[in-house]
Design goal:
By secondary structure, the protein is of the alpha/beta class. The protein has helices at residues 61-69, 83-90, 106-110, 130-135, 148-163, 166-174, 200-211, 236-242, 262-267, 285-293, 337-357, 394-401, 432-441; strands at residues 13-14, 17-18, 21-22, 25-26, 33-34, 37-41, 52-55, 73-76, 95-98, 117-120, 139-141, 192-196, 215-219, 231-232, 245-248, 273-276, 299-302, 326-328, 374-375, 381-389, 406-415, 418-426, 446-452. It has a 7-stranded parallel beta sheet with strand order 14-13-12-15-16-17-18, with helices on both faces. Strands 8-7-9-10-11 form a 5-stranded parallel beta sheet. A 4-stranded antiparallel beta sheet has the order 21-22-20-23, covered by helices on one side. α1 (61-69) packs parallel to α11 and α5 packs across α7 (200-211). This is D-3-phosphoglycerate dehydrogenase 2. One of its GO terms (molecular function) is phosphoglycerate dehydrogenase activity.
Length: 453
């Protein structure tokens, strides 16, 4: 698949003469300046109004504004689409933005012949076939840290609610039942919190919990620096057997699917509490329901599920419904205005930089490549952006094509089966753009080639 991503201008000529046409699109140049540095020129593709972006699952308005301000066509939906709807929609878009419900599988992405980028406006990217996307030259961005505080604060709220059985008391009051009890209701001060997955959310939670007087232990497969007075555990079992409250903050991988099952739940202290705001398949739901109904566990809070509805409304069913002292929430751990604004800004900005400048920084499935900005005074530079199969000889072919031009800077890196190449070259004759593009695009191992002014 080869793509030129053009951007419009007020005209189709320059002092150097008429601009050439690539794939039927007149190439044009409009200097655009980086607000952070008035001495550099921000590269952009041609005909920005032809760039179509589809945002699903109620992406925050901040992201919409950033993408529209960049001149792109932006279509939005407040829900996920069915597979058939999604396949039809992706045929005509250059970028798609999703959250956690939309599944961009190989089958779906095969139909996305114009797609150059995917924005996951969330932490996880397991809903996207990352390897296949990379093989098609589709760069995937996410926001792994922006909602960390929101999730950590909800974990604290649920720890307190579970320790006081507030979920059951609230439900009883709404049903007209007055049930003032203190049995099995506790302060959290002095209790032990066990954190499984000591990343950005886990460490935020650790600091807040310690400030409330909790003892914190944690387990992670990576050697990490403990914060405050928290203590690392050598094994998962040590956390399970010691903690009064256990929170899960791990990605969904083959190793983490059902990592908390009947055997692990049985190792937890009688009356302990489990909180899952990571991924739905990390916990064996039937086993958790049994542990709650048998009163082995004192309660649980679950925000994520193995299968989740595509949109809001009735019809949600889970074996955890009506379990004692069990808080069920609809995947809202990171759903605060602050978090969604930050996520929207981070992912939308990454998408704009990739489309406009070729920058792949913060991509999850691409090599991390960037080039320094072009000076504003440089009116004759063209940036070539290329994705190709990571096999010997391709760079030699590209450099042979560029050999007759002054290459002011270039960078190349690879990840798994794909390689990413960027180069700024000086052109005195704009007619050379078509030739350079066509020759690089004609390399057998080429996946995508773009030309940026």
């Amino acid at each position: 698949m080869s793509v030129v991503t053009p951007r419009s201008n007020t005209g189709n000529s320059t002092p150097n003469g008429p601009l050439p046409v690539v794939n039927g699109v007149p190439l044009s140049r409009r200097p655009s300046f980086n607000p952070r540095d008035q001495n550099t020129r921000l590269l952009k593709p041609f005909n920005s109004e032809d760039i179509k972006i589809l945002l699903l699952e109620n992406i925050n308005q901040k992201a919409i504004n950033i993408l529209r301000d960049a001149g792109y066509q932006v279509e939005t939906s407040d829900k996920a689409l069915s597979k058939d709807e999604l396949i039809e929609k992706v045929k005509d878009v250059h970028v798609i933005g999703i959250r956690s419900k939309t599944k961009l599988t190989e089958e779906v992405l095969t139909h996305a012949t114009k797609l150059v980028a995917i924005g996951c406006f969330c932490i996880g990217t397991n809903q996207v076939d990352l390897a296949f996307a990379a093989s098609r030259g589709i760069c995937v961005f996410n926001s792994p840290f922006s909602n960390s505080r929101s999730v950590a604060e909800m974990m604290i709220a649920e720890i307190i609610m579970l320790s006081r059985q507030l979920g059951d008391r609230v439900r009883e009051m709404h049903n007209g039942v007055w049930n003032k009890v203190s049995k099995n209701c506790y302060e959290i001060r002095g209790k032990t919190l066990g954190i499984i997955g000591y990343g950005h959310i886990g460490t935020q939670l650790s600091v807040i919990a310690e400030s409330l007087g909790m003892n914190v232990i944690w387990y992670d497969i990576m050697p990490l620096m403990p914060l405050g007075m928290s203590k690392a555990c050598a094994t998962l079992d040590e956390v399970l057997q010691t903690a009064d409250f256990i929170t899960l903050h791990v990605p969904e991988t083959d190793d983490t699917k059902n990592m908390i099952g009947a055997k692990e739940l049985a190792k937890m202290k009688k009356g302990a509490f489990l909180i899952n705001a990571s991924r739905g398949k990390v916990v064996d739901i039937p086993a958790l329901a049994h542990a709650l109904r048998s009163h082995h566990l004192g309660g649980a809070a679950v925000d994520v599920y193995p299968s989740e509805p595509l949109g809001n409304g009735p019809g949600f069913v889970s074996e955890l419904q009506d379990c004692p002292n069990t808080i069920l929430t609809p995947h809202i751990g990171g759903s605060t205005e602050e978090a969604q604004r930050m996520i929207g800004a981070e992912v939308a900005t990454s998408i704009c930089r990739f489309i406009n400048n070729g920058t792949s920084l913060k991509a999850v499935n691409f090599p991390q490549c960037d080039l320094r900005a072009i000076p504003k005074t440089d009116k004759n530079s063209l940036r070539i952006v290329n994705v190709h199969q990571n096999v010997p000889g391709v760079l030699k072919q590209i450099n042979n094509i560029l050999a007759d031009y002054n290459v002011s800077k270039q960078i190349s890196d690879s990840k798994d089966n794909i390689a990413y190449f960027m180069a700024d070259i000086t052109l005195l004759n704009h007619e050379d753009i078509s030739r350079i593009y066509e020759e690089i695009n004609g390399i057998h191992e080429n996946i995508i080639t773009r030309a940026l002014f």
